[in-house]
Amino acid sequence: LPSITESSTDPEQHIIVYNPLAWNITTFINVTVTFPMATVYDELGQPVPAQIQRSAESISTYDLFIVVSLGGLQHKQYLIKFAKSPCKEPASCRATYPAKVVKFERQRVDPSKRTARRLLPILSECYKLMLDQDTNLLHSITDMEGKRTVQVTQDFGEYHANGDVHAGPISDNYIFSTNGPAMPAYKSVGMEIVPGRIVTEIRQYFYREYGDKDYAYAMYTRVPEGFKGKVMCHRIEQSYRVGPLPVNCEAVLRTSTELSNNRTIFTDNNGYQMLKRTYRPFTNNSVARNFYPMVRAALMEDSSSRLSFFSERAHGVSSQDQGQLEVMLHRRLWNNQEWNLGYNLTLNDTSVVCPVLWMVLGSPAATTSLNQREALLLQHRPVIMPIDRPQEVRRALEPQSRTPVTPVVLPQNLHLLTLSVPGWRYSTNHSQNLQDILRGKKGKAEPDFNRVLLRIMHLYEVGEDPVLSKPITINLKEVLQGLGDLTSVEERSLTGTWNISELQRWKWRTVQDAKSAGSSRALSVSQTPQLLQAVEGDPVLMTCSWKGMKTQQVRVEWSWTNSSNPKQIKVVQERLREDKLGQSTLHIRSVVQKDAGNYYCEVIVEIPSYQRGQGTGTSLTVKAKQEDVQVREGDGGSVGKAGGSSAEEALIHTLRCLPLLTLLIAVFYLFRSSPKAPAARRIVQEESGGEEEESHSLSPELQLEAAAPGDTEILEASIEEACPSSCPSVHSGSRNSASKQEEEEEDEVQTESPALLLQIAAPTDGPKTRIQDNCRPEEEVEEDEDEPQSADLLLEAA
């Protein structure tokens, strides 16, 4: 306000207070004056509740708090009449309350000092604040509505940065790199309390040393009084005085509570939806990498309480410890990097900053409806405009006959973003305007006060609040009746340029799968087996499968934990593309006892939409390897001890090797045979003048590839040579000593010998392989000649 000298006769000041929001509000405003007493009147000449007290910043000024009630987009005029001396009798003060300052002794702050022995309460209808007179710091806050007390302590800390580029990382305008955690910026605290009828102010002064005369930091906490049922009762307003700082110092406000937030906070995304910020440890610069932008709001909570902060400017926030929230307030940095010095980017700021924060405590359900409105109420506080004395002098108690402007009021879940005059006679035909601009046609811009541009925003996300998140319908004719009669409404684009009916959005060429409808389903992850027992040296295989949505790229992480390591440790991570989706396996070739524990797979879908799911886990038990263990049979895990007959041991070994041997033979001849052969071919080696035939050996390394989906041909092949060394070959070796009659008998035996059929069928009728087993000793063939042929064995792989 303009200064009014004490020599003025009948000093007074007229002000206009404007509410920029489309809501009805009741709050207090602060006006700095140079008189010890003042009385405030409204437009009707009625006294307005006010409170005057000596200012904290100067001994020659006073703070005048005035209660104002304004409608949406409404302004009111107030008259302030000053007095040169404070009132002595309460009756002479009218509606203004003169508040007195109560000073407390400065206290040392030492971790070894006993605290909480002398607590001083500050009461309002919404909160009870307890101040510790042993430290002059805040001790706790009680929510009177929820009957929940939370221990809260607030102080200032400083991060110290490096200024030499040769000594390590530095901090500048674009980088925050600290040498360690924030250190306390004070050793003693002074306190003053100003109890009042409108607001009670708590003044705390933080000194670097106990004997310092000038404080380094100041915190002013204002608790509103006597406004039960009003929004302003639920807020605690705090303003800070920070600076000038030492070089390479970054100051933070640290709020420590008993909330179990697991170092997790929520911050707004550029003033809109709240994002979860979980503390993540890093190898380098973990402090700075856990700071997040706070444009409008930040909060931390547990199951029963939530502590929210709202700002009128952008800050950086972090939760470096359990139940703790840090807000970056000011920075002063200097370094010797040539590029920074050349462009003056060292941020050597010696200024004093005075940011403002609002603090709200309550249950998560109760504060959800307040968070969006409180943030906007702080950023769009009433505007105070001093005006000259009107030409027609009006007595203070003389009523005014002018009709007040009808307010513009929206529901509490809607926010009026824009209400303005376009500024010129803008044609609704945007194409015609573009042609005029291209032709160089110029015209004088004339405001059209009969047209306004209106933007309305819904504040709450879907599901954020059970009531306020619902869609709402409003009558624009009633809302804008204070501006005049509404004749027509045009819905336009967000920029206001295009009529929505003429708007043509850009169309992008996209590739949409026919089964994309399944991408919206939830991700389901299964893990097998749940229990797994093994002996040292055994191979172990675990499988993780997922379904429920169409994916294009996923990341699978396997983690392990046991009783001695309760924290999950990541062991394997792999990225899978579209052609390898649906399943991931963890294979341990040879387990040891230290591998025992619980294994979990986590599937993270990255494209097309982010989702994640975790398997139920696999419990692995590893037993020590014993010398007397010979055979593990079946799924039951029974153990056979040494001492059986040699015939039984040979039979057991044969049975165990037979499936593997058959599979190797099938794979080998699958690749060896022609893919176009429609029927079986028998390979018969004829004797040719005593020439020896070369024996065919199977490759020790085989690879099985899936058949093409469109290939429906059936491949068949006969295998003659897959015998172990103990089985005499029918066609290998020299045959000079064999007679022609023996050859005919052998051919006859081969034709009549039973065949083992292994058929691998793909789900899409892919290629099939028929394998005949002629690996039978000659003696066995003759004995089994009259026996019925063995049944075919069919194996289908989906």
Description:
The chain has 798 residues and is mainly beta. The chain has five domains: 93 residues, Golgi alpha-mannosidase II (Immunoglobulin-like), CATH 2.60.40.1180; 278 residues, Distorted Sandwich (Beta-galactosidase, Chain A, domain 5); 66 residues, no CATH class; 99 residues, Immunoglobulins (Immunoglobulin-like, Sandwich); 122 residues, no CATH class. Helices cover 10% and strands 34% of the residues. A ten-stranded antiparallel β-sheet has the order 8-14-15-16-17-26-23-22-19-20. Strands 9, 10, 11, 12, 13, 18, 21, 24 and 25 form a nine-stranded antiparallel β-sheet that branches. The N terminus and C terminus are likely disordered.
Short structural description:
By secondary structure, the protein is mainly beta. The protein is built from 7 helices and 44 strands. It comes from Albula glossodonta.
Assign an overall shape. globular
Going by CATH, the homologous superfamily of the largest domain would be: Golgi alpha-mannosidase II, domain 4
Mean model confidence by pLDDT:
77
The helical percent reads: 10-25%
